[in-house]
Amino acid sequence: QVQLVESGGGLVQPGGSLRLSCAASGFTFGHYVMRWYRQAPGKQRELVAQIISDGASTYYADSVKGRFTISRDNGKNTMYLQMNSLKPEDPAVYYCNAYNTGSWGQGTQVTVSS
After folding, report:
1. Are strands 34-39 and 18-25 parallel, antiparallel or unpaired?
2. Percent of residues, the chain, with pLDDT higher than 70
């Protein structure tokens, strides 16, 4: 049974940083493409970043490129999202996803406010 548990969200001032984590279990983590999504109130869930199984290639949405960094530690079955220079348009619930499993975590709330 695939389990994904996000953590690390919180309240940060504009320009601040947060590091999200996604702890995975129940599947062979190192074999899967992993993704971070976010969903703001009243908006559709959007893909933020993606990392392939060995971490050699990544993708970022234009809105976060240059500010966010996705990474993974296959030995720890964990994925990360380092978020720097947070902007007022970044607040959302952030979710991790193992591509093509249909499984989602519960999400972690990110709030950006002064």
Report:
1. unpaired
2. 100
